Amino acid sequence: MFQSFDDISEGHLSPERVTRLRNELKRRNLDGFIIPRQDEFQGEYVAPYAERLRWLTGFAGSWGLAILMLDRGAIFVDGRYTIQVRKQVDTSIFTPRHLVEEPPAEWLEKELKPGEVVGYDPWLMTADQIARFDKAAAKAGAKLVALDSNPLDAIWTDQPTRPMKPVSVQPTQFSGKSSKDKLSDVSKSLEKAGADAVVLTQPDSVAWAFNIRGGDVAYTPVVLSYAILHRHGEAELFIDQTKLPEDVVAHLKGTVRLKAPQEIEASLSALGRKKARVAIDPDWVPERIRAVLATSGAEIIHAPDPTRLPKARKNAIEQEGARAAQKRDGVAMSRFLCWLDQAAPSGGEDEVTVARKLAEFRAAGGMLKDLSFDSISGVGPNAAIPHYRVSKASALPLKPGQIYLIDSGAQYQDGTTDITRTVIIGEPTHEMKDRFTRVLKGMIALSRIRFPKGTCGSQLDVLARQPQWMAGLDFDHGTGHGVGSYLSVHEGPARINKSDRTPLEAGMILSNEPGYYKEGQYGIRIENLILVREPETISGGERLMMQFETLTLCPIDRRLIEPSLLLPEELAWLNAYHARVLREIGAFLEGGELAWLNQACAPLN
């Protein structure tokens, strides 16, 4: 529970480990091997046994992929990690590449030589990924081959064992809908699609469908498992049954047939022998599952995971749970920021000690299950790294004249939280106030927007960027991601970024988090969670419009705001937001903390 501040990057061991892996590749007559960050379930957070990319390269980010050839190598990351990867990885072995500007498949096509053979673990790569890689290799005159066993696992002699945390039930008082009803809805969607069965490969989809939670990976309460849901309501759950307490077995009884994880290939082959029409999501399903279905004779239907949209559209019970969780979290955050205002200027605090203090405030609320991700606690130049992971070795002290950024979240049984606040220690510069206010303007623009049904995140993303674009600035990450209900803090399918095409629907919870980063100096991000509301009539309007409800309740640092840059409607939104924070959070504070909140939420003129 809670995060470790140990330095988990072992980049200094990479040369020796790479040498051993290359020797193993030679033994297997391979010229190269693909090492993704993901595990067999394509999760953002993976158990220690699956941290293959970090073990080999030292890179500790949440997404990345490396390709190791016998004489060269590359590591691909997105804009969140372009600074971090160069600090953690031996760039003489792995050349950092931007996955958007030069996708891995394009690199393979350019780099592979005719006749070269590149291996991959078909459990760790999706069907969609392999289709792209296979095409690229063929164009280069090379060959891509699925391996029966992972060569990296063969040389990782002290690889951790698989997790064995017990599973628990998520009762309907929090889920808002029974597992039986959810499976019935999936059956109807299969009938509509003309499919006989669907394979669920994402643990959060399995957890949602069966109303169960687990502890197999950090921060996301899931159990590593697969499921097959059949058209007529039958279900198979492939799970280590030693993880199931009696109450969970009783909960699942009559709903699903429990099978051992290793039995999934037999069930897939049985579907093939029946010539069943089986739906898989090629963006998420392991290539091995696709291959078993194909070779056994199943008719494969490429379709989105049928649980993703229902899971993203939070029902009324889940929405109320989210509101309660955000309020509880806002109390902890406000108490923390009050403490920080007093502690930071006097010295003696660093990025680790303040992150630990925030965890203490959250735990004091009495309902905390875990954090929802590693807190990003950065001051000065470390705050300029969007997904900075603080460790005891990297932690900087908090000093006057610096910006401090804390991006953190919590898992409560009634909801998942994610919030970022940026504060100044001492006095800000004119540039800091300008940049902070532009970030704030973008966040407010997205908070206030109304939009018709069918609007997707890419159509709204520009609102958060426009104040920066006007000054020749931008940020190299998405503006928002979906958030689960006591599940993944990064949940699909909807996002707010430059390219997403998923229409926003009522009940979806997303983050609203524009930022600005000046490498080597400071970083700024302001993040609230927002809920998509049902379409409403606008007075004098002709179409129903949707809008966002802001869920997060916590002051925004007024000391970093340049009021002259705010439009009247922006200032009105900010003052109304702070009045709401004071009203709802102030009811839980007293004494010096309440006095601090009164000052932090005072109207800005």
Describe the 3D structure.
- This protein is of the alpha+beta class.
- It has 3 domains: 11-155, Creatine Amidinohydrolase, Chain A, domain 1 (3-Layer(aba) Sandwich), CATH 3.40.350.10; 168-306, Creatine Amidinohydrolase, Chain A, domain 1 (3-Layer(aba) Sandwich); 313-597, Creatine Amidinohydrolase (Alpha-Beta Complex).
- It contains 19 helices and 28 strands.
- It starts with 13 loop residues before the first helix and ends in a 5-residue tail after the last helix.
State the gist of this model:
With 605 residues, this protein is an alpha+beta fold. It is 35% helix and 19% strand.
SSE blueprint:
Elements: H1 14-27, E1 32-36, H2 52-57, E2 65-69, E3 73-77, H3 82-88, E4 95-98, H4 104-111, E5 117-120, H5 127-139, E6 143-146, H6 151-155, E7 168-169, H7 172-175, H8 179-193, E8 197-200, H9 203-210, E9 212-213, E10 226-230, E11 235-238, H10 246-252, E12 257-259, H11 264-273, E13 277-280, H12 287-296, E14 299-302, H13 308-312, H14 316-343, H15 351-364, E15 368-371, E16 376-379, E17 402-408, E18 410-412, E19 415-416, E20 419-425, H16 430-448, E21 450-451, H17 457-469, E22 480-482, E23 491-496, E24 509-512, E25 515-518, E26 522-525, E27 528-532, E28 546-550, H18 568-585, H19 591-600
Parallel strand pairs: 1-5, 3-4, 5-6, 8-13, 11-12, 13-14
Antiparallel strand pairs: 1-2, 2-3, 7-9, 8-10, 10-11, 15-18, 16-17, 17-20, 18-19, 21-28, 22-23, 24-27, 25-26, 27-28
